[in-house]
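Hello forum,

I keep getting stuck at the same step: I have a sequence, I want structure tokens, and every attempt I make locally crashes halfway through. Rather than fight my setup again tonight, could one of you with a working pipeline run this one for me? It's a single chain of 368 residues.
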Amino acid sequence: MARSDRRRRLDAPTTHHRPTLIPVPLIPLTQTHHPSAIESFDRFRAVAQGKLLTVFLDYDGTISDIVSNPDKAYMTDEMRDAVSRVASLYPTAIISGRSREKVYDFVRLPQLYYAGSHGLDIVGPKCDDDNHVELHQPAPWAPAVMDRVYLWCKEAVSDIPGANVEHNKFCVSVHYRNCEQKWWGAVQDVVHRAVAADPKRLKKAEGRKVFEVKPRVAWDKGKALSFLLGELDLRRRYGYAEGEIMSLYFGDDHTDEDAFHELREAPKECGAGVIVSTVPKPTNARFSVRDPGEVLVFLNKLADLAESGVTKSLCTSVASGGAKSAGGRGEGVKTGEGVKTGEDAPGGSDSSDPVAETTNRGRRGEAA
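Reply #2:
Ran it on my machine without issues. Output:
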């Protein structure tokens, strides 16, 4: 069978498109110049003082370097230690475009929350049976569809030098980082044709030297972040008032702008995005760091704040949480799967509080 025939097996239109490679942001990008989180740390410290922080991290380009082979994007031991240290003090989650299983294999910290496939697959910390607690999957039908998309895209780019297709369970990523620029349009055309074969269920997205096929659902990293904050339910669990919790999101990619935008909509000084970039660019982030090395420095500084008592931490929250939330233990807690009550609710019993257990595991430095 001729290659051109094989490429039409998804019943895609035969008309080839060559759209522009310049992405059009779906949300307004407000800041071009943003202060360095390292150089402006005194300013950040003043804003964070007395608050409990929640920390959300992208993976590639944020806590690991961007590499030519995505299967070898390993994080350093120093970064793993810093993330583990932060997670022992603050609620911490990884929100990545990678499949949830794949990003966990890189990070190997069971006490974290993980949101894979741009937030389409969200789990809580591992339980005693060594399984993650499944929390939310807004497109449960997607993996079977992405199996077919992956096989088709892999065949379709087989004659494009440097192109690489990655199956991320709920989405498919087609990388062109290793392609000469003359091939970028051909890679994008493959993704366009894959989406055109099933436009009611699929959509195209873009990242750093990658085009993606994603399920057409109203979900992104920003919504995943908001879902996780709701799942943590820190205000009810520990009695925090509005303004006593500050959320941070670190990311380097266009797909992270949804999370930056979500935090920019938070009440004043209760949320901040930190963009990882060597050059100024339009963004909804409030702070910047240059590279994963500066992320490492900043994470350790965050841990220092909790350990010195400048910010609240899970340790102090767990110690005082029983008294603060005692009046609300019988109340239902809204989650992605309805309302949980009693011992089934997060914080519903002291022995099953997942945030408290995350703290204990983080202090023990457990890793799988």
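DSSP finds twelve helices and 14 strands in the chain. If your local run keeps crashing, start a new thread with the error log.
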